[in-house]
Amino acid sequence: MARNYAAEIDTLKKDLSEIKEMLKPMIAMKASFNEPHKKVGQIEKMPFMHPDPNIMNILDRLENDCGSKDQTGCITYIGVFSSGGRQADWIRHEVNTDDLLKLIENKMAVKVLACIGNNDRLNILLSILKKPMTVAQLVEECGYGSTGQVYHHLKPLISADLITEDSKSEAKGVYFIQPHRVQGIIMLLAGISDMLDPQYTKGDWDQSS
Fold first, then answer.
1. Domain positions in the chain
2. pTM for the complete prediction?
3. How big is the CA angle at 108 (ends 102 and 111), to the nearest 5 degrees?
4. Whether domain 107-207 has CATH 3.90.1150.10
5. CA 140 → CA 77, 134, 136, 208, distances in Å?
6. CA distances (Å), origin 202, targets 62, 189, 191, 205
7. Per-residue confidence of the chain (209 residues) as pLDDT tens digits?
8. Cβ neighbours around 11 below 10 Å, total
């Protein structure tokens, strides 16, 4: 069977065209490193941080707003989490990082971290994130010896409005994570993940305690 060289050449041209389109963001990114970046206030514009133009549009807006308002920073985050028959969606846009830093100054950050920064409470949160549970189920799931141990760690989580009893459940004493708290827990874990990522840090957390 004779080869159709014309068709093969057309295919190669099409493939080369697609490769060029794929390389355009990388070429533009490389070029941007050799050019001085524009600034808005104290904020240096960082083009081509991400290949998705929609995400870059959000970053561009954050840089402009942050620089024009003389803020230390500005962040946007969105997400969805579904487990145990419950779903949480969240969108926080243009959050001023100066307000976030105040959570350290006014001692609220240490209060929150002290409340959940305990292995037993974190295990309870993890279990209930997976699905709503009773105290008896938590005893079995987390390996406790008595319901009293679970109640001991459950109490501060309930007081902090992280966990509440499900009044709509047919069974009594079923606890679940407050829907408006889910995103905070997930985003806190996302921050911890960044701290542990060797791409960003070479520290040894085992030696830090």
1. 8-75, 107-207
2. 0.75
3. 150
4. no
5. 35, 10, 7, 32
6. 29, 19, 16, 9
7. 677 777 778 888 888 888 877 766 665 555 555 556 788 989 998 888 888 889 999 999 999 999 999 999 999 999 999 998 889 999 999 999 999 999 999 999 999 999 998 999 999 999 999 999 999 999 999 999 899 999 999 999 999 999 999 887 777 889 999 999 999 999 999 999 988 887 766 677 776 66
8. 11
